[in-house]
Every structure is written in C-alpha cells, then in structure tokens.
Amino acid sequence: LFLYDHIGGRKRLPAARSIRLHDHAAGGPLLPELVHGFEYSDGWVDDARLVVLNARDAANHGAAVLTRHAVTGLSRQAGVWQIVLEADGQTRTITARAIVNAAGPSVARLLDAAQEPSAHKVRLVRGSHIVVRKMFDHDYAYFFQLPDGRIFFAIPYERDFTLIGTTDQDHDGGADKVEASDAEVAYLCEGVNRYFRKQISPDDVVWRYSGVRPLLEDGSNRPEAATRGYRFELSGDTGEAPMLSIFGGKITTYRHLAEEAVDRLVPIIPALSGPAWTGNRPLPGGDFPMEGAGQLLAKLIRDYPFLAAETADRIIKAYGTLAWDWLGKAQTAADLGRDFGHGLTAAEVDFLVKHEWAMSSEDILWRRSKLGLHFSPEQHGALTSYLARQQEQEPEHE
Fold first, then answer.
1. 84 pairs with which residues across the strands?
2. Which contacts (CB < 8 Å, 24+ apart) does range 248-257 have?
3. 155 with 141: CB under 8 angstroms?
4. In 3D, which of 131, 139, 158, 135 has the Cα closest to residue 310?
C-alpha cells in the first residue's frame, strides 16, 4: 500500500492508513478475532457501461458499430482485407485497409481464420463471481487474501447486494460458454465464511457470473500468477494489408493499450497520425468535474423532482450529462411512458435501443444496467414483450 500511494500515480485519493477494526465501521461485520487492517482508496467502474460508452464514443466520431456480427471469413485480396460477417443468418462482406484483432479470448480464433501464424499464445483464465443479499450496510469494500494466495473481495453492489469474487481457473470451454461452476461458488462462499460473522452457502446466491481473462501465456504453473501484461503482433508483408493482434491486457490498461495500437499502425496508415487526445477527453456523459457527480445529481433531482432517489442516483452513474437527452422535457413520471419497474421507463428503454444498440431485455437488464437483480419474472416478461412490439413496428433499414 505504501508503494501504491507513492508510485501508483495517486493525486486526489486519500493515502492508505492503518485502522483498528474494533473502532472502525468496517470491523462490525467481521469475525471478532480480526483486529487490525488497512484502509485505502481506489476508483471503480461498471465494466459493461465502460464498453458501451467506448463504442458510443467511437460511433460519435464516425465509426460503424456492428453488434452481434460474427466474423466468419478473413482473407487478403488486392491489398485489402475482405471480411465476411454474419448476423441473423445473413452475410455481408466489408473491406478494410487493416485489422486490429482485439478479440480478447478469441484472438487466436481470428488468427486461425485468417491463416496467420503467431508467436504468442493466449491463456484463458476464468474469473467467477457471486452476488448475495447485502452483508453490511456501509460503503466500504473488503479485500482479503485467502490461504491459497488468491485475493478475495466483497463489495457493496447495486444498493441491496454484495458482490463477491473472484476465482482464477484455467478455462477450456471456449469463449462462448463461460459459467461459474458449483465448485467455484462453494469456494467463494467458504471465503466469506472465513472472515465474516454472517455465514453464507450456495443457497444464498442470487446471481452468479463469469468472465474469461485472455492472458498472455507465460508458462506460469498457477493461473493467478499469469501475467496481466500485453503484447502486440503485427503480421503482413510489405504491401499487404496488416493485422495487428493484441494478446493479454486488462481493463485498467485499456486506454493506453488502444493508444499504442494506433501508434503501431501509423507507419502503415499515415492518416492515423496526430497528437494523442484520449487521456483527457471524457467518455459520453462524462463532461463534468471529477468531484461534480453530487452537484450533477442535485441538478437532476431539481429538474425532475418526480424521480425516486435511488433511480436518480442510478441514472447519473449510468448516463451522466446524457440523462437529460432522454429525460427531455418530462414534468411527470407519466411523461416518460410505461414504467417497467424499479425506475426503468419506456423513455430510457427507447434511448438504449436507439443509442446503445440494445436489442433484448437481457441487454437492458444485465448489460446496460444490472436491474435484472431487482426485476421479477413478470416485469422481465413485460419488457421483453415491449421490445418485441417495438421491433415489429420498425421499418426495415440498411
């Protein structure tokens, strides 16, 4: 933590400090034999929102974003890439001067599809998480180290829940089927019971999910010890359309990685040259001061006093200044259309469909938000029916 404070670039966050758990709010939910700890501050992010907002930002700058399109063919022809895409049983071919293979867990699959040899390999490591009803009423998160050396955390989540993770398991099932195993769920429950007064079992889990980390294969015996660094590999002879493949990486390095990827292509595509700009440019909706979220929330409540407090808080965290784009001139809750439950209205759903590529209720309840934790099956069904009717009414377009 000393190193984290002094070489980690901390500028605005408080420094770490030693605490006595018996005198600190975080100590109450813990077993009484735990008496000493450390407090430090860090940032947090909703990873799904981060992905969507990067895609939205790209579209705002002229990118064509094609979701739910599978790459089924890659070949070089006449100095460009011919890329075959498939969606809903239909295929289309697009051309590109270069490909950045940032497919994460599927980076090797795309190289195989393009018949490109590679000097690097990816190690797929599964990280699983569980969500239970909240185990404590304060806003502190917990980080522990388990006897096997892995880091274990318990984090306040979506107001009424606690998020618990994570595991490190080598994953052999491919990138399309990623699920938390019963053994992983039991392992996480055991971690909770090692530290907390409130004991849990797999029966207490209300949601489980997993992700696959595409780590650079470095020969580590243990998955948790595999490097979180990244490597680039540029293929293509002189005069051929290049493919830049990315191996490894993690969420905290994504912007630096993307900037470096563009720099790698500049000698081949000079039009990409120019000063770096992403370091200080906010993502869509983030054009307010770092300490300004509270003021923005207060303004939202003044402008739309009919919003419930928890809904207003969720909206600001998800959309920032973009919230006013879809709340518009609404003066009552009825002006936002049907309320599907827990503050999700037709106005918000329509915005997500039009501007954030949402197509299904799962997109909205689990990817653009985590409202699925709160929705009943009946509410979920009503949203699904609404989206189906909206899609039937849309004219076909290219």
1. 73, 93
2. 248/122, 248/214, 248/215, 248/216, 249/214, 250/213, 251/45, 251/47, 251/50, 255/279, 257/230
3. yes
4. 158
Alpha helices in the chain (DSSP H): 2-7, 47-60, 107-113, 182-195, 254-265, 293-303, 309-319, 323-327, 346-355, 361-362, 377-393
35 with 22: CB under 8 angstroms?
A: yes
Tokens in use for 130? 């569980």
Half-sphere exposure of 40 (CA within 13 A, CB side): 15
Tens-place pLDDT, residues 326-377? 999 999 999 999 999 999 999 999 999 999 999 999 999 999 999 999 999 9
Residue 129 backbone dihedrals phi, psi, to 5 degrees: -135, 155
CA distance 314 to 75: 45
CA torsion, ordered 210, 215, 217, 219, to nearest 10 deg: -70
| Residue 104 CB partners (closer than 8 Å, separation 6+) | 175, 212, 214
Q: Per the omega criterion (within 30 degrees of 0), is the bond before 167 cis?
A: no
| Phi, psi of 79, deg, nearest 5 | 80, 5
H-type helices in 196-282, by residue range? 254-265
HSE-CB for 64 with a 13 A CA cutoff: 6
* Range 178-210 burial, b when 16+ CB lie within 10 A, else e: bebeeebbebbbebbeebbeeebeeeebebbeb
Contact 130, 191 (CB under 8 A): no
Burial 250-273 (b: 16+ CB within 10 A, else e): eeeebeebbeebbebbeebeeeee
Q: How many CB atoms lie within 10 A of CB 228?
A: 14
* DSSP secondary structure code for residue 106 in this structure: G
pLDDT tens per residue, range 178-217: 999 999 999 999 999 999 999 999 999 999 999 998 888 8
CA distance 274 to 344: 42
Q: How far is CA 26 from the centre of its chain?
A: 27
The string of pLDDT tens digits covering residues 214-251 is 888 877 766 665 667 889 999 988 888 999 999 988 88
153-180: average pLDDT: 91
